[in-house]
Amino acid sequence: MEQYDVVIVGAGLAGFAAAAEAADDNLKTLLIEKGRTTGGTGNYVEGVFAADSEMQKQQNVVMDKQELLEEELTYSHYKADGKMWQQYIDQAGKNVSWLKERGVDFITVAGLGDGAQTWHLFKGKGHDAIHNGLEPYAKGKGLEVLTLTRVTGLKQRADHTYEVTLTNVEDKSIQVIIAQNVVLATGGYLNDQELLESTPHQNPYNIIPVNSGKNTGDGLRLAWNLGAKKYFTGMAMMFGGQLKSKKIPSFKLWGTAIWSSVCDQPQMWVNELGERFVDESACVVNWANEGNAMNRQDRVFCIFSQKILDDFTDKSFPRSMKPFVPEDRYPSLRADLAKAEAEGHEYLHKADNLTDLAKEIATPNLVDYVKHYNEMAAQGEDTDFHKPAKYMLPVDGDGPFYAIELGVGAYTTGDGLRVNTNNEVLDAQGRPIEGIYAIGGDGSAVLYGDTYGVNVPGTHAGYCIFSGRNAIKAIASKK
User: Fold this and answer.
1) Which residues lie closer than 8 Å to 327 by C-beta, 6 or more apart?
2) Which residues form the FAD-dependent oxidoreductase 2 FAD-binding domain (predicted)?
3) Prediction pTM value
């Protein structure tokens, strides 16, 4: 049987970071990917976190590492691992330089909204960072890559190495190899409905994965079979409302005029009862908050009138979206909604009056609540949730009236396994399982409570780089 120093399960951003580090350490490494192509969800990553990079220094961006640490610990209500965070923050700037040296190109350092300027944006997103940088670099130094292959068995032998059973996805042929160490990098479990349903604090039926579709908890199950602790905090990296569609993947509707008008503009959102549940303006500026608020509901709709639709199309909307939307209006919105209606998209509901709209979407209190909302708008005061008066657009006038159904977009999960500061997987007693490591989404529970901190952007992707390198350094130190 072929023997390897390291077998990495999952060829995404974290997997390739580990592979490149392993190549530098002259470790015989096999990278395994169940899909036909490599990169996974990492292909869509915009950029990575850092606190003291050369790029930040060139742009005169100064970050206080202690403040960032306190921000993350406080945001997680101290559920995050402070020791791991400190180690990560200290290494993040060096990791940006390391990426550059391995062929990864960056555009600039940015913040997200009014968040910290920690986001180091890739040229060509994660796709180019992986396929023009890390992948050719590691292959050039001897990395072996197997695609269309699943790890279907992991068994420790008497000499503490592992038998790794590989199954070809297409012809079901089986191969067994030997690994000194196994690194799990399968991206968490966002695409596994059964695992989502087993986590607390979520309404999994409202979650719309916006990722590669391959994150089905493979790494978690392999670790659990070896005695790893099942560690669920209910963390999904949510980023606000998405159009709920079965006809087209929601990520293809992200950023469209319809999507932006109901998710970026603080219009009237109601739940399954037809009642508001939040100050919409406080959510649209922080999509983690938006996702959390929406995910507490069974169903979510944006309710608006023909007058609002016409105003948004022809005149203006209240919250500027420049530079993402060049004008303070959506010139194509009316036509886009008409097209969606003609194509029969199920997220769009339309009726001549509010009574009929309420019946169509089964919201018993909608008519009464809209009346109450319009009264508050006329008075210029939101006594329910204190939304600023300029955003209190009355839902009135002549029909038709519209309801757009929303789900909650999510990028990845951040729980499932516990790891220590070497990214070794821990068992139920908190002891490391020898030779088993988890990185990226498989080993990111150390970073979070139940919510991703968008105020310090790039932290999950940056952790993919950090944890991949961190695990391999720990392996190399044992040789």
Assistant:
1) none
2) 5-443
3) 0.94
